[in-house]
C-alpha cells in the first residue's frame, strides 16, 4: 500500500498528494523558484512540478510536446535519445480541480539519459501533465520520471534497490492519482509571474 502525503507547494498556494517515499530535495539541494522536486532514490523516480511561462505561440495540443523538447534540449539530450509517445487530453475526472474549459494534456515520453555527465545511459519514461492557465500566463507542468532501465555503470545503480521494470499500469495509476489531487489554493501566486 502506498502512503501518501499532502504537500504544500509554493508557500502553500498549491497542494498535491505525493507518496511519502518521495522526499523534497530542497532539504539538501537548491532548486529554481519555479520548480518543486521530490525524489525516491530507492527507485530512481521523481516528481517535478514546474510553473513555466505560457507559450501562447504554441497550440494547446502541441504545448506539452514543446515543453518536453525544451527540457530535453536544456538537458543536452539529443533528438535520437528522446521520443514522444501518446499525447491526449486529460479528462475532467482525471483533474477535477480545474474548470473543464482549461486545456489539460497528458503525454508519455522517453529519454536515454546520463546522470552527472556520466557515459552510462539510463532509460527513463516521463509521464507528463500540462495545464494551460491562460489568465495566469502560465503553463503548469507535472512530470513523473520513472527509470525503466539503469545501466550497471550508472551512479544510480548504487542507490536503487529495485531495478526490475515497474508495473506500467501501477505507475500510470500512481501518476493519475498525483495529478487528480493537484489543486491551486491561492491564485495570487501567479500575480508576479
TrEMBL record:
InterPro entries: Mog1, Mog1/PsbP_a/b/a-sand. PANTHER family: RAN GUANINE NUCLEOTIDE RELEASE FACTOR. GO terms for molecular function: guanyl-nucleotide exchange factor activity; small GTPase binding. GO terms for cellular component: nucleus. GO terms for biological process: protein import into nucleus. Belongs to the MOG1 family. This is Uncharacterized protein. It holds the Pfam family Mog1. Keywords: Protein transport, Transport.
